[in-house]
Amino acid sequence: MSDAAAPTTAFTVGLVQMACGETVSTNLDTASTLIRQAADLGARIICLQELFASLYFCQREDPSRFDLAEPVPGPTTTRYAALARELAVVLVVPLFEKRGPGVYHNTLVVIDADGTLLGRYRKTHIPDDPLYHEKFYFTPGDLGYPVFDTRFARIGTLICWDQWFPEAARLSALAGAELLVYPSAIGWHPAERPTAGAAQHDAWRTIQRGHAIANGLFVAAINRVGHEGPPGGGLDFWGQSFVCDPAGQVLAVGAVDRDEVVIAVCDRRQIEDQRRGWPFLRDRRVDSYDGLSARLLDDQTDARPGSASGDDG
Question: Which domains can be identified in the chain, with CATH numbers?
């Protein structure tokens, strides 16, 4: 699997979307098979979906599900490090991390093409919504927003709910990311799908295309497929994993309802071209953003330059 013939400016991304079942070993085997398919199709950076080794257990609070967690390094990282080394590919592998007794994270690891574990990212923004009870399971991440210098590209890594926060994408871009990946587990509540489903999916895709445009980089979103939960309840995961370019144009997209490998060729020359034409990073007014570190700018009106003092003079 030599890359000698590939343009030096390009890297090929493969996204693995799949339905998950109760048996962890079966999910791992399915993912491994799809990783091999992606490599055969030319992918050199291959990304799996959030918590791919199990069902999305956060639909309810169940203490027994903590037994799914494992340390890093651990069995999953060992298995996929060997596969990355065999196929000479970079792997982005999400997992349920046991950091210590009672402390767990929603994590991913980045494994380089020689099998080296480059590091991990711990999900920073943790949701607590109907059927997404992640605060019960996960401690917020404390590693910042690392960017990993892999054999084929510099990768910024975020996870699912992180995808709605422009600050995380921007910090990854400022650290040199060429590709921003978002392993996800997002879907419709079946009762909402007929009325709100199209708008929800459009918002999900739009926000990530916006990150690509605002930061001038490639974005990949990887999402699971299938229904999980009781008939008429649970979640319908909408799949449709995609890659978009620095102009926000979708390069490749997966189906809504089946296991699939999504392949996209990313030419890093587009990053330079986009940032020359739309120089958002150049024109940032970094001297004016102090308020971003506050929860809200309440009771600070008089303190802001140029604000009215309330005195008519």
Answer: 15-303 (3.60.110.10)
